Amino acid sequence: MEDSERPIGVFDSGVGGISVLRELVALMPQENYIYYGDSAHAPYGTKTLEEVRALTLADADLLVGQGVKALVAACNTATSAAIQLLRERFSDIPVIGIEPALKPAVLSRVHPRVLVMATPMTLREEKFRRLMERFREQARVEPLPCPGLVEFVEHGELSGEALEAFLRELFAPYQDGTVDCVVLGCTHYPFVRETIQSVLGEHVKIFDGGAGTARETQRRLRERGLLRSGGEKGTVTFQNSLSDPALYGLARRLLAGPCVPETPCGM
Ligand code: DGL
Known about the structure:
Layout: E1 8-12, H1 18-27, E2 33-37, H2 49-64, E3 70-73, H3 76-89, E4 95-96, H4 102-107, E5 113-118, H5 120-124, H6 126-134, E6 140-145, H7 149-154, H8 161-170, E7 181-184, H9 193-200, E8 205-208, H10 210-223, E9 236-240, H11 245-256
Helix pairs in contact: 1-10, 1-11, 2-3, 8-9
The chain binds D-glutamic acid (DGL).
């Protein structure tokens, strides 16, 4: 098989990385994808650095073992814990990570107040500390760890009273109308974006890094002559460390779009 014909491997601690996968598919529909979710071990963001590194390497090994031509860590937590290790281990293929989309948020206004929602690990790690430092002069950046939010998405609970109550409590200190932007620094959060918007108010601009990661993946593939040519549509194969059939249904629903449980998505 020609190198360009090989699939792109995408992984996350669970179903969250599908928010990146859907951007990849929108940008490069002719590619074939294998998406691996490690739902058996989600969430990663409240584990130790050593645990997340070991899990991330195992996820990547599983995909590289299937001959992928590129690896996308569609997980901010795995990226902050292990992107360097992944690049060293798989130096012969492009390895793309994701980080909170702080730059576009900071540049969207003059000295905005920006909340960065992410897992405790992402916000604790050096990578984010350095990113925050870069924009110290240009914005008021406030990290907001959100333990517990990933679980709503893993359970397919993308709207409803319990989620709203969780978010109201999380945002209770930020209800004075002074927050300008929110960065979704975890790939699970775009799936609850509408509820976040409704709790914080329409004046708040929300950013996430999915589309930027997809563009970077395309750029890296093009650079190496690895883009799949030909007009026909590629395929998406879902794999998960849990064999629960409901998870595969959820995965297909999330890929189809930002729909809520009550809305059939035609899949
Ligand atoms: N979706 C992940 C992220 O982008 C990980 C969430 C978790 O497992 O805690 O950070």
